[in-house]
Amino acid sequence: MSRAALGIGLALLATPALAAPPARIPEPMAVSGVLDAFHAAAARADGKAYFDLFTPDAVFIGTDAAERWGVEAFRAYAEPMFAKGQGWTYRPRSRHVVIADIPCGCIAWFDELLDSDSYGTTRGTGVLRKTRAGWKIAQYAMTFPIPNALAKDMTGQIRAYEAKAKN
Fold first, then answer.
1. Entry's Pfam families (predicted)?
2. What ranges do the domains of the chain cover?
3. Staple 54 to which of 7, 8, 58, 151, CB 3.0 to 4.6 Å?
4. What sign does the dihedral 94-58-117-63 (CA atoms) show?
5. Eight-state DSSP code of residue 87
6. Taking the mean position of all CA atoms in its chain, how far away is CA 59?
């Protein structure tokens, strides 16, 4: 290689656009972006976008004790509503994301407080796994956070309901 060619090559490497790798989105922000897309897809009843955010072996845990669905069972439940244009709206109020401190950094877990049009304050918790296609939801659990001052009354109502359901 001539000195001139070498000089041109070194000059190109020194060019700011080529010298640094492209900016990466910090992983917690990338995870938050997936969760925001998840809630947005549900609100617009976009089943394809919604279910594309899950891993194939994902689990959705609903608010009812009987609601523990694999992603295909959850799809069978939700798709008829989405097909009618009926989704659900949850707006994040706060969110905490932790990326696993392991070499691959390929697991994240989160908790978020949400405002629901139907239920008011709700909480989502779960786990995302980093795949070749990006971050995907491996588990999502939805709960109703009950203020401690109301917990005994509410759990009493649940016990009474469950006892009645057994009979």
1. SnoaL_3 (PF13474)
2. 22-166
3. 58
4. negative
5. -
6. 12
Reference 88, options 126, 53, 122; nearest CA is 122
List the chain pLDDT tens, one digit each, 167 residues. 444 443 433 333 343 444 444 456 678 899 999 999 999 999 999 999 999 999 999 999 999 999 999 999 999 999 999 999 999 999 999 999 999 878 777 999 999 999 998 999 999 999 999 999 999 999 999 999 999 999 999 999 999 999 998 88
What strand order describes the sheet that includes 107-116? 68-70, 54-61, 134-143, 120-131, 107-116, 90-99
- Closest by CA to 124, choosing from 7, 34, 46, 3, is 34
Structure tokens that stand for 113 in this block: 């407080």
Tokens linked to 39? 């809630």
